User: Fold this.
Amino acid sequence: MCGIIGYIGQKEANSILIDGLKRMEYRGYDSAGVAVLDNGTIFSLKRIGKVAELARAQTKFPHRGPIGIGHTRWATHGNVSERNAHPHLSDDGRFAVVHNGIIENYLQIKAFLIERNYRFASDTDTEILANLIDYHYQKAPHLHFAEIVRKTLLHVEGTYGIAIISKIFADELVVARKGSPLLIGLGEGENIVASDAAAVARYTKRVVYLNDGEVASVRSDNFSITTLHENAVDVVCHELDWEIHDTDLADYPHYMLKEIFEQPSVIENAMRGRFTADGCSAKFGGISLIPRELRMVDRLLFCACGTAYHACLVGKYLIEKYARIPVDVEYASEFRYRNAPPQRNTLVFVVSQSGETIDTLAALHEAKRRGYMVLGITNVVGSTIARATDAGIYQHAGLEMGVASTKAFTSQITILSMLALLFARIRDMDAIVGLQYVQALKSLPIIASDVLKLSEQIRIIAEKYYGYERFLFLGRQAMYPIALEGALKLKEIAYVHAEAFPTAEMKHGPIALISEETICIFIATQNELLDKTMNNIQEVKARGGKVIAIVNNNCIAWEIFCDEVLIIPEVHPGINPITSVIPLQFLAYYIGILRGCDVDRPRNLAKSVTVE
Ligand code: M6R
Assistant:
């Protein structure tokens, strides 16, 4: 959602702020702004629309100070306008604030401040922070900057990641966090604060993540962190595990396409060093449980949102099939508020690419509150979810810039397939079967590369069907979540109404939607029940619907009954979902492009959803 950047050092802050905002564009936003302290005055510049607009306006913004803050806003309180864009300055311009999150008691605070003659220029909840900080400064001007901010935040309810500069404290920047990510990138003679490591990766790989309830005072050559109540904090420095070229497009027109093509190496990274020496099982350094403890587990519960939720559903099919452990999968947003009955010997997994999704984080806390052990599968090292879980597995997929998750999904299902193998091997699966499973996994990067070769064929199919408005995705067993994921991709990238069902469910209602205007995409890559799927295809054809089938072999029946056939290699069922999703990612991408959509930054969407 919103992005925060702040700079303090020897260089001109402005260009670093703009660069940082550009690197956070992938998160989704509707306006952007910067504020720079220059010769004792804070100057701000804001624009609605793209950061490029802001950058263009910089020609008339000649402020070269070495301290500043910037923001990309995703509107919550107040419409999309320059006056609502951040940074917000206090009434007399002493303080400037950028903020992610929602201040829940802002109306009470606003009324309190209006009574004390503070004026407001925006409709946002954020502006009250600037004025409330000023109010506390006026009450006790002898206090340090961070102390004033701490006192202010004691009166604030809600969530925030904030960065503040002041003309009174010209060599300091203060940041604080509660429920919205913030980190300090440690440079040489300069420090950069941000809500996203992508914004600092160009300057440093050493970062310190703030925890909830912490306030940091950041200067060009040092920083200090305390809690809101002034308790000392153990500072842990993390090394970022991605390269700056992760944020570049290379020769691709879009991040989404780049990330689809990165999948063979992403799958390889997810598996690297994670097979046992005998080659018959998987192992994860991050999971601290020993086999005896893992055998005690009677049930697994997965919580996640969006694409990560679909990955968990794939995991359910694979784990139940191979390891024979019952698995429940819940939307994190439901689990956090639902009074689910407690279950014995249950291990909880939360899965999140960003590691910052608010609902998944809340589900994690709820599970821990109930006394469950919670493990995480996340892509972002040091993210909030990674730090809050008892232990976990990193995806090592590299930074995912496209708002639509592609490579993170295949990386998650690769890890979940390996988890199925790990649990199976300490229960029912013998070494020979384990060996075959491992060999299948090891062959996966090459097979995924073969599937990528379908790109052009899928582009041609997209050209035929991109004008249609109704798509149904159908799959059985582990292909059902793949159908869900295909439909989600098409919705978010191409703004086409798409739904997914288990194939046999079609007859129980959705068949009423079938007409010449309907495209049905059958994911028919599992060997079981293919005859029944063929019956379903004929039911669609009998009603005039169009059929695109993803299959493993070129049997004549597919050619006869389907309008389009995409053949992908036949693989072990433990990796089948991974290869089957790639054509659907391409399809969504090409249809999105043909419909003129901004596939990397789809409307209304944010890369990580950090507010409810
Ligand atoms: O970062 P997370 O994996 O927790 O994000 C969860 C969802 O918000 C995310 O997968 C979303 O559905 C994507 N837009 C899917 O492409």
